Amino acid sequence: MSVLSTLKVRLPATTIGLALLSAGLMGALSWHSAKQGLVDEANQRLRSAAVARSESVELLAERAKADFIAVAAHPLVQQNFGDIAENLDPSRPDFEQLKTAFQSAPDVAGRVAVDGAETNTTYGRRHAKVQEVARKLIAQPGYADLVFLSPEGRVVYTTTKGADFGAAVTDASLAGTGLARLYDTLKAGADDAVVYQDFAAYPAGDGPSAFIGRPMTKRANVAMGSAQASERTGYVLMRLSPALFDQTLSKRAGLGETGEALAIGPDGALRSNPPLAGEAHAGDPAARIGLSVEAAKDAAPFTFERDGVARMAVATPIDVLGAPWTIVADQTTDEAVAAATALTRTLAITAVAVLALTALLGMILARSIVGPLGALTSALKALAARQELAEVPGSRRSDEIGDIARAVVTIRDMSLEEAAQQLKTTEAARLREEEARRKMLRELADRFEQSVGGIVSDVTLSIGGLQSAAQTMRATVDGTSQRSASVASTAEQTAGNVNAVAAAAEELAKTIHEIAGRVEQAAAMSSHAVDGASMAERTISELSSAAMRIGDVVDLVSQIASQTNLLALNATIEAARAGEAGRGFAVVASEVKELASQTTRATAEIGQHVALIRQTTGDASRAIQEIARQIQAMNEVSTTIASAVEEQNVTTQEIVRSMDQASAGSQAMTSDIAQVARTAGEAGAAAGDVAQAADDLSRQSDSLSREVRQFLSNVRAA
Length: 718
Prior knowledge:
Helix Hairpins, 5-stranded antiparallel beta sheet, 4-stranded antiparallel beta sheet
């Protein structure tokens, strides 16, 4: 039973609850009013802080722009920019040497200290003059670097000589960065345009960076006697870091111990580092510290959580060199409404005192009501239990409790008379219900016997038919099994014959394939023989031609020998005429004559041999031609044989495939017949199970009939 089910507890609890409700409502209204005032005051304080910081940020941005314009217009920058842009180019042989010289220091401070004069180059001397100006610029907070770009977009100068020094905006390290986007904007813009590129990730700058840039121009004569025109020599840029705004946004005035201010860009990323975050967050999405960009776009105050702590915030939009930023000032909710905590303690103490007094009054009131009501409750319980009541307590009281007690006395008197009458009525009703129940049971037994008895008879007849069908099915299955076994034996024999024929066909196919290979070899050899005969015939023809040429040469030599013989004879005659003086000449002439005679005999013999060679080569040529014709005929016969063998091979392969298919079909048929035999066996077993089930069902039907008769007998007896 619940504790609150008794008036002894309910009355004090109700009194305390009403007091608690009243005190709670009054306290809540007071606390809410006070807290709302504190929240409004905190929001106004945060809005003032946000507006003050936004004005400071805008002034810082404008000052940075003015400082950049001043540096770009500095005489040393103007005078040396062109030479710097022209003398750091990958096509120059000293490009890599210059990069190494300026980037050799391991840290930024070391690289900034290098002015380049020691390189003894035009670039180094010009660089030294600009570096002096740039060092003063980047010494200011937030001014991270001064950058020169050539007209083609190559970084030809940076004060810090980071990874971007010497790189082009199209290189993978710079493509898509803020520097590359600013270059594209400046390249398409006017010569006097000063363009701001908002903060974005810049790997070469070790963090998010923004850029301010403008084109650099010089005067150039277009034609003699004409006015001078502007010619772009490159672009000068200043890189900014979040530190430019961190110092202003980290000021704590008007923000208490837990308040801070920060900037958000149009891309939803932080433009400054939250002073209380403990780590750098510039460039991170604002959502990473719990800030909702959509909420910050609204002018109304909003709340968010960071690291599990609730914070109040107010945002105000600003324009930073054309980029729409949002300045957010926030503070923990606990600090903003700290005064409400003291008010809460005061209200709580007051509520406890009121509750204690109310509880005491409630208990006194409850005892004055619950005591008499408890006595009446005991009297009613005794009356309900048919106990004798000599006197009902409180019946002589003059208040509402006395009225209740007197009503209980009246109920007591009436209940005694009604109890006797109700006893008679109940007994008569019980007898009528008992007779009606027995009649209904007899009718139900008759209807049940008619319906269930017929069903049991039908089931008994069906079981007899089922037993007969099961026996017939078993006989059929046995016959099927015997025939399946016979067919399976025949199928296995057929499959064996088919496999033997298939094996023979495969052996025949292999033999024909080997014959085809030999025929192809013979055809190839015949073809080579034809080619060799043709070559031999050509060689014999060339030999015959050479023999004819040799014969011509022999004839020429013979003619020369005859002429030489005549000349020798004439020389001999002339020597004889000369007498003693021509004797030596006569000897020489005699020798020449002898040599001419020998030459004539030799050429005659050579001519005979050449004639014999010509005759022999003619005979050989005719013989080789005959051999070539015979080999050609053999080649044609070999080709015919090869074609016939190929056709026979194709036919044999077809026979082999057909026999393989027949063998596979025989095996499948054997498998199917075996499956039929197994299925027939299973069907026989199932038929036996059906017969057994029919017998069991018959016995169960008899048992059911007996149980039904026994049930009806019991029902009628009841």
